[in-house]
Amino acid sequence: MSIRTYKGIKPTLAESCYIDESSVMVGDIECADHVSIWPLVAARGDVNYIKIGARSNVQDGSVLHVSRVSKENPKGHPLIIGEDVTVGHKCMLHGCELGNRILVGMGAIVMDGAIVEDDVFIGAGSLVPPNKRLESGYLYVGSPVKQARPLKDSERAFLKVSADNYVRLKNEYLEEV
């Protein structure tokens, strides 16, 4: 596993995390209990911070990054991922904020300043533009995303099931170590 210090700051990982050895984690990153980071994820908390909530997972080939503090943007854009979030394969999350119980479909891009409220599905290949807010309880699809429809009760329930499945999977991987 490649855990790197940047300017004296090293990622903080809860003991129950699984970080695949092929991923790269640099700088100011905090991973809560039962977070899993899968193969070839690149996460750079160098010019701002990344915080990943409990039971969230970031799947293969995803990129996590932030935006620096500037005169025009005094706080910059950290990357904040809530609890029970599933980030699909090859996603790019850049300086955005994701609430709880979210599924980010494969290949989706969420840009600086975007805010995704709780209980949201973002369709595969979708683009969430800068500073866009996605309202809780909906499926969003497209490039740029548009609100497609309210989530069904079964889809809302699946958001937690997906996170739980990845907690079980990371536990299996940790048993192998």
Automatic annotation (TrEMBL):
InterPro entries, per this entry? Hexapep, LbH_gamma_CA-like, Transf_Hexapept/Carb_Anhydrase, Trimer_LpxA-like_sf
Name used for this protein in its record: Protein YrdA
In Pfam terms, one family for this protein is: Hexapep_2
